[in-house]
From TrEMBL:
GO terms for cellular component: plasma membrane. The lineage of its organism: Bacteria, Bacillati, Actinomycetota, Actinomycetes, Pseudonocardiales. It is found in: Cell membrane. Its main location: membrane. Belongs to the AmiS/UreI family. Keywords: Cell membrane, Membrane, Transmembrane, Transmembrane helix, Transport. It is a multi-pass membrane protein. Pfam families: AmiS_UreI. This is AmiS/UreI family transporter. The chain crosses the membrane at residues 6-24, 31-51, 57-80, 87-107, 113-134, 146-167, 173-192. CDD domains: UreI_AmiS_like_2.
Amino acid sequence: MNNVGLLYVGAVLLVNGLMLLGRVPPRSAGALNLFVGALQCLTPTVLIVQAGGDADAILAASGLYLFGFTYLYVGVANLAGLEPEGVGWFSLFVAGCAVVYAGLSFWRNGDPVFGVIWLAWALLWTLFFLVLGLGRQELTRFTGWAVVLLSQPTCTVPAFLAMTGAYRSNTGTGLLAAAVAAALIGLAALLASRSRDTSPATARAAATA
């Protein structure tokens, strides 16, 4: 069930990245954030209830709330016209937790691919903190491109692989995932440098994650 949620996280991240790039109006993106946020809160709740006290199952489900709360927060903020600083500072908390989950994936779960994915998410949520929490508007376009480019490789692709039984995680695939992530981040920086700057007003309105 968590892979079903991950599939739709790929969709909302893509839309939110386009929102930062000025391609999707914030209010238009708000509804999808609410839908996916609700799904990402319902899913871990069901998984925890069904876990029967299994600590490992509860730990695996716990991280989903980070994203569920993010998207609900973004959806409400966009539709209500709230200032984005709250989303930004919450994103700093998410980024810190993502680093912990990355460490668990590497050294506790033996899943280096998802360790890389968690680190990629930590980077994205750190960027959300810088842009939305601290008002670093010069990073807006880089953040938007990074979200667009990383949304599918870190969410949609592993979700489909897991649901079809094709997901593999070992040292080799982990290194490949790290190389792909690094290349996409470099591409995001290149695309941002070639794009015109987003206006401060637009960037502040685009509360995303």
